[in-house]
Design goal:
Keywords: Membrane, Transmembrane, Transmembrane helix. With 141 residues, this protein is an all-alpha fold. The chain has six helices and no strands.
């Protein structure tokens, strides 16, 4: 009975975590306006559905690859192709994030948080560093 309850609780927590991470990813894509900007830059307005499908299929592929421990036996030189595409995605995502960071001073001014802007930015940076260190030192070692 305890095993069934533990398994059910674990499944519920895992499902809730997956929904929260997935929702945060989708919200970030919407806030950053990543897909419409990409469509605008490439002037491929008719193919915007293709961009959306590529994001969805890429997420599903990498979720499956991680979950089922898929290993590709490709030679190192052939892995350069997906590495370039991953680098382009990360670069575009980082560029979109820097544009969003320009919103913080405007929001802090409207909400009268201007005196606390430095503290807000430092809390974000330190939280990211602390989370990365905890993940690296606690879960990776």
């Amino acid at each position: 009975m305890a095993d069934w309850l533990t398994g059910t609780l674990l499944a519920a927590v895992a499902l809730a975590g997956g929904f929260s991470v997935g929702s945060a990813f989708v919200a970030l894509l919407i806030v950053l306006d990543l897909i419409p900007r990409l469509v605008q830059l490439t002037q491929a307005h008719r193919r915007s559905g293709l961009f959306e499908s590529a994001i969805l299929l890429g997420a599903l592929y990498w979720i499956s690859a991680d979950q089922f421990h898929w290993i590709l036996g490709w030679p190192a030189w052939l892995l350069l192709v997906p590495a370039v595409f991953q680098g382009v995605f990360v670069g575009m995502f980082a560029a979109a994030l820097t544009e969003v960071l320009n919103v913080l001073p405007i929001i802090s001014k409207k909400l009268r948080l201007k005196p606390y802007l430095f503290s807000l930015l430092m809390a974000m940076v330190l939280g990211k560093v602390a989370g990365s260190l905890i993940d690296w030192l606690w879960f990776r070692l």
